[in-house]
Amino acid sequence: MEHLPTRTFRVTRADLVRYAGAAGDFNPIHWSDRVAASVGLPGVIAHGMLTMALAGRAVTAWVGRADAVAEYGVRFARPVVVPDDPEGAVLTVDGVRRPADAAGLTRVDLTVSCAGEKVLAQARALVRWPVETGDQG
Amino acid sequence: MPLDPALAGRSYPPAPPYQVGREKIREFATAIGAADPVHHDVDAARALGHLDLVAPPTFAIVISGASLHQVYGDPELALDFSRVVHGDQRFVHTRPIHAGDEIVCVHHVEEITVRGGHSFLTTRSALRTASGEPVADAYAKLVVRGED
To answer: Which residues form the FAS1-like dehydratase domain (chain B) (predicted)?
Structure first.
């Protein structure tokens, strides 16, 4: 078991707009404070799938390969509220690397939080971790 | 009204093929800040043994999302979207998605459970090539809040 280096990701309103367009998810709770408030949210929230994708970037950064993820799953535990300011919200992603299984897949358990609260639960990925040769830069 | 658990097991007709384009992969990768060259540079992707640009691990949601209205709009399910939240999401990849792939998505209702007035709907979207080669399965669990 190995603790992987903490990674952080900033999410601003502009990122939500960009993700909405790229993913085709135009739910107004991700861009309209009025609609977010009308359904009882404290403000515009990030797409759960954006939070998942950013945490996935931590995984591919740790592995050193962006094509190594075989399986990846999360539970959306709490919404990520993104204020309308340049600071936005900051996600903190920690990971623990487990030993590879018989099939050569390595499990990475993720802890993803925002403002000290866990926003993803049961977040884990199965990856094909490249064999370390010891001389990689 | 809670969802009807008897609807579990139903499948929908294959969705129209989704053509995975290089620019869509680049756009999606940029939107999530994924700068790895395998998402942007065809030569870099080929150097790692891929046929073309590699999509980020969650890109399958774009393909499944393009036709999930088949499920969400199913009149027998009668989902009230004002009460729906995305509960869980999971992707199981047989192989990465590449630019140039033509993906046919078949949606299934895996499971419906009702607990404490809330309904839980799990869908499985099977992503296959036009010739039937498996690429990935995307599992989504939606929570439908019960009446207050």
So the answer is: 9-137
What ipTM score was computed for the predicted complex, to two decimals? 0.96
Is residue A137 very low, low, confident or very high in pLDDT (cuts 50, 70, 90)? very low
Cα B41 to its chain centre, rounded Å, is 25
Is residue B134 in a domain?
A: yes
How many residues make up chain A in this entry? 137
Strand segments, DSSP code E, in chain B are 18-19, 84-93, 102-115, 118-129, 134-144
What's phi and psi for A77, nearest 5 deg?
Answer: -85, -35
DSSP one-letter code for B42 = H
**B77 against B1, higher pLDDT:** B77
pLDDT of residue A136: 47
Per-residue pLDDT, A63:
97
Residue A77 has a CB neighbour count (10 Å cut-off) of 16
**Superfamily holding A2-10+47-127:** Hotdog Thioesterase (3.10.129.10)
B133 within some domain? yes
Nearest-by-Cβ selection for A70 from B85, B93, B139: B93
CB pairs under 8 A between A and B: 98
What total number of domains does chain B contain? Answer: 1
Q: Which CATH number goes with the domain that contains B13?
A: 3.10.129.10
Cβ–Cβ of B58/A71 closer than 8 Å?
A: no
Q: DSSP assignment, residue B24?
A: H
Closest chain A residue to the Cα of B26, Cα to Cα: A22
* Residue B121 in domain: yes
